[in-house]
Amino acid sequence: MSQKLSEAQKNSEKQKAWKSSERFKNILRERNKNNPRFTMKGRKWTKEQRERQSQLNKITHNTPECKEKCRKINLGKKMSSETIEKMRLVNIGRKASKETIEKMRRSMIGKNLGKHHSESTKEKIRIIHLGKHLSEEHKRKVSFALKNHPTTDETKLKISKANLGRHRTEEMKQKMSGINSSNWMGGISFEPYSPEFNNTLKENIRKRDQYRCRECMRHQNELFKNTKNGIRPCKLSIHHIDFNKKNNAPNNLISLCSMCHMQTNYNRADWTEHFNDVLNI
């Protein structure tokens, strides 16, 4: 029995030596010289080859039949943590072009309609973003993107229903108010308005702006507010563009609805620049 084992070990060692020899490699290379899988092994494609293959894939792989086959093959499969890490390292520093971002945006339209994250997914997202802070540049980009996408009445109603009955804790109020607030400006909101900023001046600004909010363009007749005595109509607010309550020049005043006026408490420099553009100053 021991002799048979020793013979088998010798044979396996001989096979390993034969497969690692140059002669075996040359025979294998000659046999597979017309096999693209063998000839391309270990090589890197040039940019031209990649572009050619990309164009070819668009024709052959983008058919509905091919997409359905790929979908069924990958259904239920999960990438290993090792694969995910490799993909993450490969994509570090890469930035998608505007064209690619637009394609991705269009492809996702309607796909997540009515879908909601599970509690476990929400928790994972919360942990990932824990301790992270947006850079000033990122905040400006988000602010600029949201300026051209006013919240619809339907969305506002959904937000209102979602927050119905919710109350901030005293601890949360403490964190969001006064010096602890990220929007603290040294208490300038408590400064009184000058006597020039009266009802006559406000009405003149509303008339100049044709009684419309210069951000969402809603008319004053469409604005209402909830009071203890029920729903009542409300007037447009008059906003100081440079946030200086003493500067009551007409080119520093603009009409805003209460919702749009509330948004101006964030990223003040951006809003100042935006409203100056609106008034063509």
Shape: elongated
Distance between the termini: 98 Å
Structural class, by secondary structure, is: mainly alpha
Give the H and E element order: HHHHHHHHHHHHEEEEHH
The Rg value, from CA coordinates, equals: 33 Å
Q: Could you tell me the mean pLDDT?
A: 80
Please count the helical segments. 14
Let me know the number of strands. Answer: 4
Largest sheet report: 2 strands, antiparallel
- Share of β-strand residues: 5-15%
Tell me the helix content: 40-55%
Unreliable sequence segments: none
**Strand order in space, largest sheet:** 1-2
List the helices and strands and how they pair.
Layout: H1 2-20, H2 22-31, H3 36-39, H4 47-60, H5 64-74, H6 81-90, H7 98-108, H8 119-128, H9 136-147, H10 153-162, H11 170-176, H12 199-208, E1 224-227, E2 230-233, E3 237-240, E4 253-256, H13 258-263, H14 268-278
Antiparallel strand pairs: 1-2, 3-4
What does this 3D model show about the protein?
With 281 residues, the protein is mainly α. Helices cover 52% and strands 6% of the residues. A hairpin with a 2-residue loop joins β1 (224-227) and β2 (230-233).
Note the main attributes of this structure:
single chain; 281 residues; mainly alpha; two-stranded antiparallel ribbon; 52% helix
Task: Please summarize what this structure is.
The chain is mostly helical.
